[in-house]
Amino acid sequence: MTDYDVLRVFCGPGGGYGNELGVVRDGSVIPERGDRQAMAAKLGFSETVFVDDPERGVIDIYTPTLRLPFAGYPCVGAAWLLDVPELVTPAGVVGARLDGEFSWIEARAEWVPPRTLRQYATAAEVEALDVPPPGEWIYAWAWEDEAGGRVRARGFPGRGDGIEEDEATGAAALLLTDRLGRALNITQGAGSQILTAPQPGGWVEVGGRVFLER
Questions:
Q1: Which of 68, 76, 100, 211 has the most CB atoms around it within 10 Å of its CB?
Q2: pLDDT over threshold 80, residue 193
Q3: Does 75 lie in the same domain as 25?
Q4: Are 130 and 72 in a shared domain?
């Protein structure tokens, strides 16, 4: 098996939770897309990143079943691991920075694959949801504190690839921030934390804590 790291991205304040991310630091060892897809399927993480140029931040992102031009939590994790000012993805150049305990990226909503943002009346309703059948990608959310920008969310990819629920989803958080036009403090899944902030010119910053698991 090719060497890879496992990060947890968007961890909670105590360092727990977060979404596991596989990162192959030397993408040259698996140059073919088909082989990368097969490895991503075998690893079984929500997403796996192949680093094609660590100095320039060139990365390639896969779910267990498809290649993604852009994805939020893989970019946040890669930005932390590579410590570069930008990442180069097929969708475009992603700004990157580290600020204390948080790793941040800056990206655009139009880079995000389709998501259904479904608002509920209360956080308790979101927490009580059952996993929906495969179909559309659903980001279920509700205000915990609208004045304070605090949101409760859960992400259901609906792909039928064994990932029934995403513990933390930066791309969907980016879409929600773009739609609402305000900074958000999102608790997703079992306890992951995602911070966001709209920026001038249609950009959105997404940030969170990253830890090296193994």
A1: 76
A2: yes
A3: yes
A4: no
The label of the residue with tokens 């921030």 reads 177
- Residue type for position 105: I
Task: Identify whether residues 92 and 148 lie together within a single domain.
Answer: no
**Of 52, 83, 101, the domain-final residue:** 101
Read off the pLDDT of each residue in 176-198 and give the average, rounded to a whole number: 97
Cβ atoms of residues 100 and 200 within 8 Å: no
Residue reference for tokens 């609906």? 158
3-state SS assignment for residue 29: helix
Q: Are strands 184-188 and 192-198 parallel, antiparallel or unpaired?
A: antiparallel
Q: 128 in the Ramachandran plot: left (φ > 0), alpha (ψ -120 to 50) or beta?
A: alpha
Summarize pLDDT for 36-94 with one digit per residue, the tens: 999 999 999 999 999 999 999 999 999 999 999 999 999 999 999 999 999 999 999 99
Closest CA to 80 of 155, 29, 23: 23
Q: CA separation (Å) from 93 to 4, 13, 76, 135?
A: 24, 29, 13, 30
Q: Are 165 and 156 in contact (CB under 8 A)?
A: yes
- Measure the CA–CA gap between 162 and 104, rounded to whole angstroms: 28
